[in-house]
Amino acid sequence: MPRNKECVVNVNIRRKRVIQLAVLMILVSFLTTTTLSVRSLDALIRSNAQSLTSLLSSSIYDAVRSDLTKPSMVARTISCDTFLINLLRIEQAYTEDYIAYRLNTYLTGIRKGIDFASAFIVPNAGRRLYGLDGGVRRLDPQTVAQDAVFDKFISSGRPRVPVVHMDAFHPDRQMFFIFSRIADEEGKVVGMCGVGEPLEQIQGVLRGFEQKYGVQIRLVDWDERCMLSTTMPADGGKVVEGLPAGYRQHRDFVYAEDGRGGYVITRYLDEIGWFLVIRGEKTEGREAFSSLIVENIVAIVVIFSLLFIAMHFLMRSERMHLERKAFTDELTGIANRAGFEAALEQELRRTECGALFILDLDHFKEVNDNLGHPEGDALLRRTAQNLKAVFRSSDIVARLGGDEFVVFAAEIQQTDLLAATAGRIREAVMQRYTLPGGQLLTVTASIGVALYPRYGSSYETLYKNADAALYAAKEGGRDRFAIFTGER
Description:
By secondary structure, this protein is an alpha+beta fold. The protein is 49% helix and 23% strand. The protein has helices at 3-39, 41-46, 49-79, 82-89, 96-113, 145-156, 199-213, 286-327, 337-350, 364-371, 373-390, 415-429, 459-475; strands spanning 118-123, 128-131, 136-138, 160-166, 174-183, 189-198, 216-220, 226-229, 254-257, 262-269, 274-281, 354-362, 396-401, 404-410, 431-434, 440-452, 481-483.
């Protein structure tokens, strides 16, 4: 296997296994917790209010966590994506429209795997904000308050934070966002991203629990300020009083009575660094809890099954993109050296005979020097398309670099057929130019041919012998072809 392909495959296999393992561990953890809750339901009903409210808090915790985990996972994926990091490094070398198109295509591709409502990317160098639907605008932290939030986050040094924030391109829509820094392998920050869901959607989940179980639900930060609730934005940022003593040290579950016949429960949400706070009255209700547990089991299985499937398709799409990029010549659209070697390796296993053609463009340097590199690039693109027209779709056509092209055609051995094919190549490649001084310049092709398996059973040997024939064709005056015969 070629080294490029092996690296692409290994990277994708490792990443896919890590994600699958993480999702599987979370799923098993949720299912195990819920199953144990079902088995101990009878004992919980007979126990004190603390045990009952623990079960209730687990149900609310699981539902809230599932809604908030998705933007967190997507933000983590984006912030460590090598393709995106490399693009942001060179953002200023391209036009605003080009970067907007590439980033919109990138975010849209991710959303096909895992649906989310909003996302944006802010490169650190260009100071522009690119949205999911192709929107783009320059940052103005001096006059636009929400732009100042982005600057404050990047300078804070925190890898990611949850925020309730207005949508960058829809100021009338309030969102729950995960902001995440994007840094390269050396830790240098190249930008940030935000992935979000509508605040009203998350509030709807909280409101459903509040109405069903007569509780009040808030999410608070480490300073005990309310960061998210069903009454936002009225109580946003307000200090929440009456929290249990020592709840920060016991993050999993803390229960306390409020002295008025009610209780307060806190649980820590690791993904976002906030505490879930539930206030309610002491009550019992076996049927309600039993129904809640069953609903949780069904919801958890469905959510994680869909998530697992989505990640599978996302990783497969990314692998295909990386393979195409690794094996395709960016200028001409045909195979590059790595792509040719990979295709030839498979072709040599199944074909009995064939011919390897190597050709260089005669006078290509003069085109570049006199007419400019854009015209030289156009010549290379036309040459690639003309070569594909000469050969069959099953033959392998590639550009190795510069003005050097290579073709492997299976089942070609006869000298007259080789000569006819070389003639068609010369006709297809020939281009005439008028130089600035009025001189005429004709671009032709010098061609070297080596037969498989007679003069080589591997790519390395075939290439060496075909290259020797190419050298002989050039020595003979160019615009001609030579077949390797083994003679020196």
